[in-house]
Amino acid sequence: MIPSIHKRGSETIGLIHYLYGPGTDEEHIDPHLVAAFDPLTPDPSRDPKATQEQLQRLLDQPINALPAHRRPKKHVWHLSVRAAPDDPILSDEQWGDIARRTVAATGIAPDGDDSACRWAAVRHADDHIHIIATLVRDDGRRPRLHNEARRAQSECRRIEADYNLRRVASGDGTAAKRTTSAERHKANRQGRDRAAREELRETVRRAVAGAASTNEFLDRLKDAGLLVRTKVLPSGDLKGYTVALPGDRNKDGEPVFFSGSKLAPDLSLPRIQERFTTDSAAPDTTDGEQPQRPTAPSAPATARRTTTHAAWAALLVLDHSGDEGTAAAQIAATGEVLDTLAKTSALHTRNELRQAAWEFERASRSHTRAEFRHAQGLRRAARDLVHGGPTFGRGEDGAATAMVLDTLIFLTLSAAHWHAQRQHAQQAEAARRAAAHLRSAYQQAAVEPLAVLRERGRRIAPSLPRHHATTVRAALPEVAETVLAEPGWDALAATLTDATQAGHNPQALLAEAAAGRELDTADSISDVLVWRLRRMADLPAYAPAPDSTRAGRLTNRQAMTPPLAAPSRSRTPRR
């Protein structure tokens, strides 16, 4: 149940006309009172002798009783209370009780206060009510409304428990502004799936992801087809920007522009420019040459592998860093990665990744100020994903996608844990929802590459799986039997064979893979180990069966015996 306190107004009759009117798109059905400060308050929709003007005069009586110079200019208080979409339809009596509890909690009409403010609750839809109140008490004093929004939220949490409704996580004031019913109805009339505000917010976030400068950000907005206006100070510095959908127009036929701050608190121009304080381009190499950018045809896969390394580094920061600003920056930059993955993903994973990015948007923002200079690895990864372009989701591209999604699942769950520790309830819940969508996308992306690896694992010499099983028991004694019993064991055996051939010590590699992050939350430990090992050992994510001639030259001894000086860590990731 969500309470929303609207801007204070100066005309009681104007709000009453709206509440009892048809709405912007005939969406108001049977408007009527469900409760009021006085049980005998006339209802213009039920009493044929009552009028809306009569209700207005009754509510405004305390205002009109004051001398003109003492009357507040903004005396109309407006609160809406909306049930969750999956909540049962409540009766008028239940909504009336909710209205009385809400005005009492906020200080509009405390229980037992005979001189409290006058108010009325109007219902014109199944799922919500509107409460209108006059901000002058019957004794001529002003009500005490300190923190009324927070008090309304707290009361709604108690109402949810009492009525067995969906429990909505408490907010902290950092959420993006919700779309209004008028915006949603307008979207329906225009044949759009979502309101213009939501479409713009998603497009702007994608334009921010991995951008290295303000000019690049603005160019991306224009390339996405948005109408863009900028405001320049006399000094020549850019002050702000506004965006509009070409087809979204007002009654005068003009585009409806939104500033970035109206889309989300972190999309104002100053907040976006904070991300550019450190150059998002890849760092110089030791010999002074710039590392080569991913280029086709391997660009999407290369970008995803780079992102996997960056996501793993961010995961370790969240798990071990004590700096709040650094952790918040990693979480915000994770949102950029998800936005770019959703934009460049293959068709069969695109919807789930888009939903993951949409959910994680709430998790990327809190009162902890992000220090983006500490999250440039993820921002560069997002930039590489943009430049790498879209993927068809097959072969190495598809396997690299599965690899990065496997890591991002753990990263989003770590973000959820970080938020939960700090009582950021909405952010923690959003991160968990994003992880669920990432799991679905991973399951779709991993089908083919894991099937190939499992087939390879079933074809290797019988002595090799036995040898690898011994290695697993030595390196991972607590989970070894679980791993060996999983369907993914064949893929892990193939990966251990590949790692040995590449010159790695498989036992040391396994131990390091398990020590880096817990495995208890994994749906399949063997699958997680496959992707960790292939990342750490820099193995191809997609490894089809080797040529039969080449395979024939590989002896069991060669496959089982690591080199004497086998490194336990992977080579430095390519950037």
List the helices and strands and how they pair.
Layout (H helix, E strand, L loop, with lengths): L1 E4 L6 H9 L11 E5 L15 H13 L11 E7 L9 H15 L10 E9 L2 E10 L10 H16 L17 H9 L6 H13 L5 H10 L3 E6 L5 E7 L13 E2 H4 L5 H5 L25 H22 L3 H21 L2 H17 L12 H13 L6 H27 L3 H35 L3 H13 L4 H6 L3 H13 L4 H11 L8 H12 L11 H6 L2 H5 L15
Antiparallel strand pairs: 1-3, 2-4, 3-5, 4-5, 6-7, 7-8
Helix pairs in contact: 1-2, 3-4, 6-7, 6-11, 10-11, 10-13, 10-14, 11-12, 11-13, 12-15, 14-15, 14-20, 15-18, 16-18, 16-19, 18-20, 19-20
Model description:
This protein is α+β, with helices and mostly antiparallel strands and 575 residues long. The chain has four domains: 2-163, BirA Bifunctional Protein, domain 2 (2-Layer Sandwich); 181-276, no CATH class; 295-445; 460-570, no CATH class. The chain is 51% helix and 9% strand. The strands form two sheets. Strands 1-3-5-4-2 form a five-stranded antiparallel beta sheet, sandwiched between helices. The protein starts with a strand and ends in a 15-residue tail after the last helix. Mean pLDDT is 88; it is low at 280-297 and 548-575.
Question: Which characteristics define this entry?
Answer:
22 helices; 3-stranded antiparallel beta sheet; 575 residues; alpha+beta; single chain; disordered C terminus; elongated; BirA Bifunctional Protein, domain 2
Number of domains: 4
Shape: elongated
Low-confidence stretches: 280-297, 548-575
Strand order of the largest sheet: 1-3-5-4-2
Rg: 29 Å
Tell me about the largest β-sheet: 5 strands, antiparallel
Separation of the first and last Cα atoms: 47 Å
**Please, what is the average pLDDT?**
88
- Supply the CATH architecture of the largest domain: 2-Layer Sandwich
Please report the first level of CATH classification, the CATH class of the largest domain.
Answer: Alpha Beta
Bin the helical content. 40-55%
Q: Total number of helical segments?
A: 22
Secondary-structure content class: alpha+beta
Overall strand count: 8
Query: Topology as H/E string?
Result: EHEHEHEEHHHHEEEHHHHHHHHHHHHHHH
Report the portion of residues in β strands: 5-15%
Looking at the structure, the CATH topology of the largest domain is BirA Bifunctional Protein, domain 2
